[in-house]
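Residues determine shape. Next comes a sample protein:
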Amino acid sequence: MRVGDTLPPLEIEITRTLIVAGAIASRDYQDVHHDAELARQKGSPDIFMNILTTNGLVGRYITDRFGPRSVLRRVAIRLGAPNYPGDTMVLTGTVEEVEGDTATVRVVGANGIGRHVTGTVTVTVPGADGADGAEGAAGTEGAEGAAVRGAGSRP
């Protein structure tokens, strides 16, 4: 875990199921997240992902990379281009700051029409020393990481 390290990209297929399930799970019952006809009546071409689902996906991106012992300390995101069904969002990240076992990662999630999400995540990895966080971030390289990577697209 060093300043300038880049995280491998994560591609997430944006499906109707992901959008609706994320809205239901976060108790966001606004019709634009589950009813295509009402979304169109309100000027949107289709239903679109809510910010809470995006927030969860950003958190997943970081914890998948830094392992099961990682703790999200702060997530600060801003939405841009909507995530519509049938698109793919690609999350990328760059470590901007490291202090001890805590890092701040700049995250960008882009889809076919632009940047869906931008922001920063502050994450603590117990055991990472700031100079070489490989020991603290090794969880994604072992059995735990394989299980997480094999879990599919979850909100």
